[in-house]
Amino acid sequence: MATIKRFYDLEAWKKARALNKEIYKLTRAESFKKDFVLVDQTRRASISIMANLAEGFGRKGNKEFLQFISVAEGSLCELQSHLFISLDMEYISQDEFKKLFDLTEETQRIINGLAEYLRSTELKGMKFVKQPLNT
To answer: Which residues of the chain have pLDDT under 70?
Structure first.
């Protein structure tokens, strides 16, 4: 596996970004945007997925990264719950719900794959790799 040097090269982060873009489109819709609380909570949950993946990566250690991945997964489940509310309140159609829910599940699979890789690798994180001294 190639070494990833930037958080925005992570497939999980890229998928979370695509999900976030769709959530923002959704919450701008006339049927949705008047429910300020749900719009805010839905956007915050979506943002949290991306942000926690980036922050966890930036910590440079697998254990810390896994903690942030856990938070991202929690936010993803929260987002799924908000999608059910959106459907129940008839802010979105069944087709819109399915499209977005499928995207959340795809994002979750990729995040879970990243977590499994971090748990199984011998490398414990970049902060534990000995760097050559500049002389």
So the answer is: 1-2, 125-135
